[in-house]
Design brief:
322 residues; Beta Polymerase, domain 2; Methane Monooxygenase Hydroxylase, Chain G, domain 1; seven-stranded mixed β-sheet; Magnesium transport protein CorA; transport
């Protein structure tokens, strides 16, 4: 589905052609065209391929989707794939945006994501001095918007980790629930890592050294995107280490809880074993036993059992077993 299509010249919109009229609009103008598509049909992609002479392999990747973040060069044209992440009820939902960048065109193809780039277009149109830089600036603006949307996700993971750390040592904590939350955080972190790490390699190719011609004038801007990705990568590594440590601590707490329960059971078992042993001794069926016919024999036996059990309880209490 076509979201937007506009031809820009000297940083201003000069016309808004449909997909069928893109090539004609470029022939009559000296600027570049910026086209945005969402979940396009095969017919739309084929039409765009004919209008802009897009590489068949890149178009095939954009049609199929499910691409790893990457940057490919086809002569003077670039094809980039990036992941769009958004929080969902069961973790992070992964969408994609594929960007074709040529000397006179930028095409963004969005799949399985509700995150649009109208704000990016509005920002670019408010800064015509930057839009005059051409498709290279638009490519930077799209990549910058994708990367900036990763920051709230890593911040949310850090905030949940902090909350888990503060409640982990509370008494009567549900350890299984804590482990499940940690595992969920690890899954979200892995999804984020799969989006960020390959994109670092993409951004590194767009500044310093050999840079594609269409991006040469924007190297400083792409270096800024690269710095943002490094910060996110560092946060991911720190959060990953925290999750590993928190999981180990939680398992240690589970072992401690089990040890305490074992101690309590052992202490009560010892108390009842002593009383059972005394009762067993006095319960033997012999004809001649001390205190067998003594009037105070039964109270004395109960008293001895109570004293021994009380002494054991006091001892175990001092040891912290009860």
């Amino acid at each position: 589905m076509l979201i937007n299509s506009a031809v820009y010249e000297d940083g201003r919109i000069v016309c808004e052609p449909g997909l069928e009229g893109v090539s004609e609009a470029l022939q009559s103008q000296s600027g570049f065209v910026w086209i945005a598509l969402r979940d396009p049909s095969d017919d739309e992609l084929q039409l765009l391929q004919r209008e802009l002479d897009l590489p068949p392999l890149a178009v095939e990747d954009a049609r199929k989707g499910l691409q790893r973040p990457k940057l490919e060069e086809y002569g003077d044209m670039l094809f980039a794939a990036m992941h769009l992440l958004e929080a969902g009820p069961d973790g992070l939902e992964v969408g994609e945006v594929h960007v074709f960048v040529g000397a006179r065109f930028v095409v963004s193809v969005r799949h399985r994501s509700a995150q649009g780039f109208l704000g990016v277009r509005d920002r670019a149109e408010r800064e015509p001095e930057l839009l005059r830089q051409g498709p290279g600036f638009v490519f930077y603006a799209l990549m910058d918007a994708v990367v900036d949307r990763y920051f709230p996700l890593i911040d949310a993971i850090d905030a949940e980790l902090d909350q888990l750390e503060t409640t982990m040592f509370l008494p009567r904590q549900d350890r299984q629930a804590v482990v499940e939350r940690l595992f969920g955080l690890k899954q979200r972190l892995t999804t984020l890592r799969h989006a960020v790490t390959p994109l670092l390699e993409v951004a590194s190719k767009l500044h310093g050294g050999r840079v594609p011609v269409v991006c040469k004038s924007m190297q400083d801007y792409f270096r800024d995107v690269y710095d943002h990705l490094l910060r996110i990568q560092a946060s991911i590594d720190a959060a990953r280490e925290t999750i590993i440590a928190a999981t180990q601590v939680n398992l240690t707490l589970v072992s401690i809880d089990e040890s305490l329960v074992t101690k309590r059971l052992a202490a009560w078992a010892a108390i009842f074993a002593a009383s059972t042993a005394l009762a067993g001794i006095w319960g033997m069926n012999f004809e001649k036993m001390p205190e067998l016919r003594w009037a105070f024999g039964y109270p004395m036996a109960l008293g001895v059992i109570a004293v021994v059990s009380g002494a054991l309880y006091w001892r175990f209490k001092r040891l912290g077993w009860l």
